Amino acid sequence: MTIIAALVAAFAFAAALKCTAKKIKPAGWHLREHLGEIGGALTLTYLVIVVVVIWGRADTLMTMPLNEVGDFLAGAFGPVAFLWLVFGFLQQGDELRQGTEALKLQAFELKNSVAQQSIMAAAATQQIDAQRAALQLQLDEIERGNRANFVFSHGVRGGGGVPGSKVDTSMEIGCSGANAYDVRIVFEPPIGSTVSVESEQITQSRKFKIPLVFANPSEDVLGFITLNYKGADAKDREEKFVYSIRAADPWVKVKS
User: Fold this and answer.
1) What would the CATH number be for the domain defined by 150-255?
2) What pLDDT does 228 receive?
3) For the chain, what are the domain ranges?
């Protein structure tokens, strides 16, 4: 009966210890961190109680059959084994909890790292886009600097009083940008018999004059002038313009 009472007391004490540890842990006692010391103290106390109980019965133990001695030892040390089993379960639970918290912390850090890498990648992408845009602006500026930017003017006009009558005029082509070399000028549709003409060079100070003879049209004419040339960098370029001839006023007018 004494052993049974001790076993019940051990169970009650372990349960009370667990509840007490949960309640007082926020206060900073942290009993779960000292389960080894608590288990050792309880085991020592229990062994003292066992020794006190059997102190006057040592002779009886010496004369008991071996199977009864085994039963005694199992009953005597069973509560101690169960106590350490409970403490081991609590300790294992704490270790698992700590491992879970560590995994959560690693996952959080990994998430932050991924977010940081995403921010860095976005910043790098923006920097690359900005550099690409700046480079494109530089290339566009170089391209504009190498274009001829042709300008047109018309000379005096003769004839063209009525539809079908002969119109005799001219067109001058200059440029406001870079010099143009090996220039080929194409009219579509042709103006009179002028389909295309060529010039070795057109500059700001050197214009190219094109004589134009055509019949005064009975209705307005709309066409295109295409200029193919080599720029100052020897690169082939093309500029296209729109020309118009009004039936009532047959001047050859050009706009870009």
Assistant:
1) 2.60.40
2) 97
3) 2-119, 150-255
Separation CA 202–CA 196 (nearest Å):
16
CA 105 to each of CA 96, 109, 111, 190: distance values in angstroms, whole numbers, following the listed order: 14, 6, 10, 80
144-168 burial, b at 16+ Cβ within 10 Å, e below that, comes to: eebbbebbbeeeeeeebeeeeeebe
pLDDT above 70: residue 14: no
Tokens of 14: 């372990």
CA neighbor of 205 nearest in space, from 136, 151, 159, 137: 151
Maximal CA-CA distance, the chain: 153
Question: Rounded to a whole number, what is the distance in angstroms from the first to the last CA of the chain?
Answer: 116
Which pair of tokens denotes residue 168?
């005799």
Do the Cβ atoms of 195 and 186 come closer than 8 Å? yes
pLDDT per residue as tens digits for the range 201-249 = 999 999 999 999 999 998 999 999 999 999 888 899 999 999 999 988 8
How far apart are alpha carbons 54 and 34 in whole angstroms? 30
On whether the pTM is more than 0.85, the answer is: no
Count Cα atoms within 13 angstroms, Cβ side, for 114: 6
Strand partners, 181: 201, 230
d(CA 91, CA 83): 12
